[in-house]
Design a protein that fits this description.
Blueprint lengths: L2 H6 L18 H12 L4 H14 L5 H27 L7 E4 L2 E4 L11 H25 L3 H31 L1
Antiparallel strand pairs: 1-2
Helix pairs in contact: 2-4, 3-4, 4-6, 5-6
Amino acid sequence: MNQEQAKKIPVTAPEPYPPIAVEGKNHHYAQLLGRDLASSWGEMSAIYGYLYQHWVLDEANEPLRTILSRIAKVEMHHLNILGQLIRKLGGDPKCLYVSGHSPVVWNGNMVNYNKGVRQILSYDVVSEQSAADGYLKHAQLIKDAHVSAMLRRLARDELVHRDIFSGFLKEIGVNK
């Protein structure tokens, strides 16, 4: 794959996002979404992780660097959606989540700092699948139709990302 092809790969699912809406305030739901926002498998970690990978890969991996940058922008959009949903649910979209009864503040130690292309791609495939699974689990737990619909939509983007990274992994496995 070359640079121009990498710019044309769709990095989101084809269907539109549903409206950012909630049926009513629910602090428990807001707390669940805090995990999707600020945990080690949440959007903050994904954004920084993809930017880091973009920065450390060399020019020989320019198509992958392009994809990582484009996917980071999608994850930023997800972060924005989650922040708005948390606020509408009556929560505070801080960069933290609650584990048990203790707040866990997002920090750079939550990011995977692999530098090898295979390690990066292998991690990203698992990470995107985990993100999709987490969104689908929360969509089942949350009984707000608006929020659940959005979470299912976000999960579809994560599966698109997983498939992109899987394709890159297959490509380097064959070529190297």
